[in-house]
Specification:
- The protein has 384 residues and is an alpha+beta fold.
- 21% of the residues lie in helices and 32% in strands.
- The strands form 4 sheets. Strands 6-7-8-3-9-10 form a 6-stranded mixed beta sheet, with helices on both faces. It has a 5-stranded antiparallel beta sheet with strand order 13-12-11-14-20, with no helix packed on it.
- It is globular, with a radius of gyration of 25 Å.
- Residues 1-15 and 279-287 have low confidence and may be disordered.
């Protein structure tokens, strides 16, 4: 789907300047709050994904940007143009926004050529022919212009939907789970091709998905949502290794927790003793406090199974109690001396039977610390 922009301009933007801005956006449907006081900034030519569980507000945000919904509160700007606010409203067709939906929404009674040409009514026949040819070449389907949607594979339909949305040269492309109907192998191929096409056109892109791998592999940044609120917007690497909350830690990948205790300027745990290196004074309790205001003494150490390496050692104090074979990797469940279980994701070429005794190794820089009974992470150590 596309929304043609009849008010386009040639204003240039510096890299990392704000291109799409959602400020204090709230949206409710009857008594259900879909988006709550949301603030989101997207840069020019950036590929940003919105990731979250069902009902977290992802699709509502996309519909608000497209102009298919009006916010109850807040302001939305695209390329410096205020498109939605309490006193201002720009209709979808004037926003310069293209949309590709999950079901592609191709017109079944029109050929591929006419589907792509549908939003180019302001051009003459010669210009339309040239533009459609350009779009078909861009998506690698130059010879399919005379076919109908039902004569195409799922991957071909997805690329035609993208070509149709790109034909009017939108400033912003919105992708609403466009790969979810494809099988796994084709999904990888098509999403890689889609990113290549969008990068070549220099289109600012916002993808809604529930697929973590998809969001991480495509995006410059990812925004994690829950209950209509942005919890964290960051690079995929930072989201994975530096989550700001337990929700993000648990939602983005696997996470295991081991108890620790603060003593002087150290954290003591089964993983070992870790010394602070950026607390301003030796009086730690004056610098890091619990949310309730009490001195912080007990913490949870979060570590990813990907960072844990099990080493076979008959004198070790850890035991493999179970495992899951997943093709290229094996997830081992490892019991610590405290009887707490953590996981280790290792290559499937390294096979240990149940009951193997050993020890674990990991990179302490990737540990994330949470006060007991607190949602928010705290930064106790500089990351090297």
């Amino acid at each position: 789907m596309f929304f043609n922009n009849s008010n386009s301009n040639n204003n240039s933007h510096k890299k990392n300047s704000s291109f799409v801005l959602m400020s204090n956006i709230s949206k409710s449907f009857n008594k259900t709050q879909a988006v709550s006081n949301l603030n989101l900034e997207i840069y020019e030519k950036e590929f940003l994904s919105l990731l979250g569980p069902s009902g977290s507000g992802k699709t509502t945000i996309l519909r608000l940007l497209a102009g298919l919904e009006r916010p109850n509160e807040g302001c939305i700007s695209i390329d410096g143009l205020k498109v939605a606010s309490h006193s201002n409203w720009i209709p979808p067709e004037q926003r310069g926004v293209g949309v590709v939906f999950q079901d592609y929404a191709l017109f079944p009674h029109l050929t591929v050529f006419k589907n792509i040409a549908f939003g180019l009514k302001e051009l003459n026949k010669k210009e339309i022919d040239a533009k459609v040819k350009e779009m078909l070449e861009l998506v690698g389907l130059s010879d399919l212009g005379k076919r109908y949607p039902h004569e195409l594979s799922g991957g071909q339909q997805q690329r035609i939907a993208l070509a149709r949305a790109l034909a009017p040269a939108p400033k912003v492309m919105l992708l609403d789970e466009p790969f979810s109907n494809l099988d796994a192998d084709l999904r990888f191929e098509i999403r890689t091709e889609t990113k290549r096409i969008l990068q070549k056109k220099g289109t600012t892109t916002i993808l809604v998905t529930h697929d973590q791998e998809e969001a991480f592999s495509l995006s410059d940044r990812v925004g994690v949502l829950n209950n209509g609120t942005i919890i964290q917007v960051d690079t995929p690497i930072n989201l994975f290794h530096k989550p700001v909350s337990r929700f993000v830690a648990n939602f983005v990948g696997r996470a295991d927790y081991v108890s620790g205790k603060i003593q002087a300027s150290n954290v003591l745990s089964e993983f070992g003793t870790f010394e602070f290196n950026h607390i301003p004074t030796n009086d730690f309790h004056n610098n890091i406090m619990c949310e309730c205001g009490d001195p912080l003494t007990d913490v949870d150490l979060m570590i990813r199974p990907d960072d844990v390496i099990f080493v076979d050692d008959s004198e070790g104090d850890c035991t493999i109690i179970d495992s899951q074979f997943l093709g290229g990797k094996i997830i081992y469940n490892i019991q610590l001396p405290s009887r707490v279980t953590i996981r280790s994701t290792m290559s499937s070429t390294i096979v240990y039977p149940k009951g193997t005794v050993g020890r674990i190794k990991f990179d302490s820089n990737n540990i994330v610390y949470f006060p007991k009974s607190s949602e928010k992470a705290i930064d106790l150590f500089k990351k090297n």
